[in-house]
Amino acid sequence: MTAAGIGGRPRHLLDFQDWAPERLSALLDGADTMLNVLSRPVKKVPALQGLTVCTAFFENSTRTKVSFELAARRMSADVVSFAAGASSVSKGESLRDTVETLTAYQMDAYIVRHSASGAAHLVARYSGKPVINAGDGRRAHPTQALLDAYTIRQEYGDLKGKKVAIIGDVLHSRVARSNAELLPKLGAEVTLCGPATLLPLELGQMPGVTLITDPREAVRGAHAVMALRLQQERMQGGYLASMQDYVNTYQVNEALLAEAEDGAIVLHPGPMNRDLEISGDVADGERSRILKQVSNGQAVRMSVLYHLLVGRD
């Protein structure tokens, strides 16, 4: 899906395939402006007034859905919230029919989450409107990666030459894939680490990405360490010897962080399994930027909506 939008920009944010580094940097710069908006007593601007944004979530979500809906409303868009469980989808309606029905109501953009990889691409095809991928299967979650990058940039001023270690269930993580695609475009080095059973070899072929099974080697010299949620509901296929073995080896805790760069920050895309993939003291400690990620998410998503629908720097 390569259709250009306003001013030659990518029309959609489905992944980062069509996004040049300078465009990505402009999104992050825009988030600075949006943070200023959010610091005002009246946290609202008329940038998207008269436009209707549909949040089409075919999969459960709390953080991402609320963040996107607030982002759109902060810019005065009308928001239509679509939940698959309370719709004709539960009666067997196809994705195409659902999208074409919603588009007949004159939606101006879609924010889509779906359990099937590639679903956001289909919505872009059937709707003919700008689409933001809010997570599709294991494939991509681009705005989460953008807010992760933005949080790191806030800390260090730039991502060039920074090392980011991402530890955990990489196999099932769309967040890991999107960060592996995005961060090297912004000049960072990415190390993906986990048990061999949870470490897809094809990701090691991406530019700027290294695969490692030793977590101490992975975090050595890292400026940011991200713990991924261990998706326990997917761990029935013999991926792990035991949960305790995983905790002993891969939990992001103070002992592991001793190998990282002095002052390294800790990230987590949420929701967390405390004292499983990350220790409670680290999650709540001075290195943690987890709540900062949440607050940054709204500004980043405001910037994405602005760039796709208004198209001015």
UniProtKB/TrEMBL annotation:
<protein>
    <recommendedName>
        <fullName>Aspartate carbamoyltransferase</fullName>
        <ecNumber>2.1.3.2</ecNumber>
    </recommendedName>
</protein>
<comment type="pathway">
    <text>Pyrimidine metabolism; UMP biosynthesis via de novo pathway; (S)-dihydroorotate from bicarbonate: step 2/3.</text>
</comment>
<feature type="binding site">
    <location>
        <position position="144"/>
    </location>
    <ligand>
        <name>carbamoyl phosphate</name>
    </ligand>
</feature>
<feature type="binding site">
    <location>
        <position position="63"/>
    </location>
    <ligand>
        <name>carbamoyl phosphate</name>
    </ligand>
</feature>
<feature type="domain" description="Aspartate/ornithine carbamoyltransferase Asp/Orn-binding">
    <location>
        <begin position="160"/>
        <end position="308"/>
    </location>
</feature>
<feature type="binding site">
    <location>
        <position position="141"/>
    </location>
    <ligand>
        <name>carbamoyl phosphate</name>
    </ligand>
</feature>
<dbReference type="InterPro" id="IPR036901">
    <property type="entry name" value="Asp/Orn_carbamoylTrfase_sf"/>
</dbReference>
<feature type="binding site">
    <location>
        <position position="64"/>
    </location>
    <ligand>
        <name>carbamoyl phosphate</name>
    </ligand>
</feature>
<dbReference type="InterPro" id="IPR006132">
    <property type="entry name" value="Asp/Orn_carbamoyltranf_P-bd"/>
</dbReference>
<keyword id="KW-0808">Transferase</keyword>
<feature type="binding site">
    <location>
        <position position="229"/>
    </location>
    <ligand>
        <name>L-aspartate</name>
    </ligand>
</feature>
<feature type="binding site">
    <location>
        <position position="91"/>
    </location>
    <ligand>
        <name>L-aspartate</name>
    </ligand>
</feature>
<dbReference type="InterPro" id="IPR002082">
    <property type="entry name" value="Asp_carbamoyltransf"/>
</dbReference>
<feature type="binding site">
    <location>
        <position position="113"/>
    </location>
    <ligand>
        <name>carbamoyl phosphate</name>
    </ligand>
</feature>
<feature type="binding site">
    <location>
        <position position="270"/>
    </location>
    <ligand>
        <name>carbamoyl phosphate</name>
    </ligand>
</feature>
<dbReference type="Pfam" id="PF00185">
    <property type="entry name" value="OTCace"/>
</dbReference>
<comment type="subunit">
    <text>Heterododecamer (2C3:3R2) of six catalytic PyrB chains organized as two trimers (C3), and six regulatory PyrI chains organized as three dimers (R2).</text>
</comment>
<dbReference type="InterPro" id="IPR006131">
    <property type="entry name" value="Asp_carbamoyltransf_Asp/Orn-bd"/>
</dbReference>
<feature type="binding site">
    <location>
        <position position="174"/>
    </location>
    <ligand>
        <name>L-aspartate</name>
    </ligand>
</feature>
<comment type="similarity">
    <text>Belongs to the aspartate/ornithine carbamoyltransferase superfamily. ATCase family.</text>
</comment>
<dbReference type="Pfam" id="PF02729">
    <property type="entry name" value="OTCace_N"/>
</dbReference>
<comment type="function">
    <text>Catalyzes the condensation of carbamoyl phosphate and aspartate to form carbamoyl aspartate and inorganic phosphate, the committed step in the de novo pyrimidine nucleotide biosynthesis pathway.</text>
</comment>
<feature type="domain" description="Aspartate/ornithine carbamoyltransferase carbamoyl-P binding">
    <location>
        <begin position="11"/>
        <end position="154"/>
    </location>
</feature>
<feature type="binding site">
    <location>
        <position position="271"/>
    </location>
    <ligand>
        <name>carbamoyl phosphate</name>
    </ligand>
</feature>
<keyword id="KW-0665">Pyrimidine biosynthesis</keyword>
<dbReference type="InterPro" id="IPR006130">
    <property type="entry name" value="Asp/Orn_carbamoylTrfase"/>
</dbReference>
